[in-house]
Write a structure and sequence with these properties.
heterodimer; A: 46% strand; B: mainly beta; seven-stranded mixed beta sheet; four-stranded antiparallel beta sheet
Chain lengths: 112, 115
């Protein structure tokens, strides 16, 4: 699975959009970008995933660059409950029962 | 989304004893379950992968005789930490994936403290 690089930490004001970047310059053509988050002392929570098109769901939007070497997770209106460690993971996609390899992630702190 | 539960949510045991942690998929059939371990201020590390009805596949450095994994049904996997020692104290998290699933669903984790 391709390696990812994320900033160690970010702050965001409550109510504002949180934009979390991820670099994955060695991504292969059949690898998807997944985002999970982990609130303190809880199990990780799936957020969104995509291959090459931008994706949006009720939680977030995922913007993938045209060359697929980087992506951005957008939380449109961050709340205090969005404070968590966000993990960007690249791996072969749906239907493949492979483990997720977690990096260090980005600690997002939403400030009141 | 699908729900995965773990039991217990926390456990304290004495050194030398064994502890069993259960992972259940509540509303789907989990053909594959994964067990992760997370030490304080660190990321999740995969311990083993289990497929229903098969022996688990352990990651390098994880002792299979110490961490016994059983995946006897499509909704239940168990991790037994045998002869636990203080260094086994950690946050243990399972995840489950169904046949052809879009993503993995994680349990809430089990905090193990060995005294």
């Amino acid at each position: 699975d391709a390696k990812t690089t994320q900033p160690t930490s970010m702050d965001c004001a409550e109510g504002r959009a949180a934009n979390l970047p991820c670099n994955h310059s060695t991504i292969s053509g059949n690898e998807y970008v997944y985002w999970y988050r982990q609130i303190h002392s809880q199990g990780p929570q799936y957020i969104i995933h995509g291959l090459k098109n931008n994706e949006t769901n009720e939680m977030a939007s995922l913007i993938i660059t045209e060359d697929r070497k980087s992506s951005t997770l957008i939380l449109p209106h961050a709340t205090l409950r969005d404070t968590a460690v966000y993990y960007c993971i690249v791996r072969v996609g749906p239907g493949s029962a492979r483990q997720l390899t977690f990096g260090s992630g980005t600690q997002l702190t939403v400030l009141p | 989304g699908a729900v995965v539960s773990q039991h217990p949510s926390w456990v304290i045991c004495k050194s030398g004893t064994s502890v069993k942690i259960e992972c259940r998929s509540l509303d789907f059939q989990a053909t594959t379950m994964f067990w992760y371990r997370q030490f304080p201020k660190q990321s999740l590390m995969l311990m083993a992968t289990s497929n229903e009805g098969s022996k688990a596949t352990y990651e390098q450095g994880v002792e299979k005789d110490k961490f016994l994994i059983n995946h006897a049904s499509l909704t239940l996997s168990t991790l037994t930490v045998t002869s636990a020692h203080p260094e086994d104290s950690s946050f243990y998290i399972c995840s489950a994936s169904g046949q052809g699933a879009q993503e993995q669903y994680f349990g809430p984790g089990t905090r193990l403290t060995v005294t």
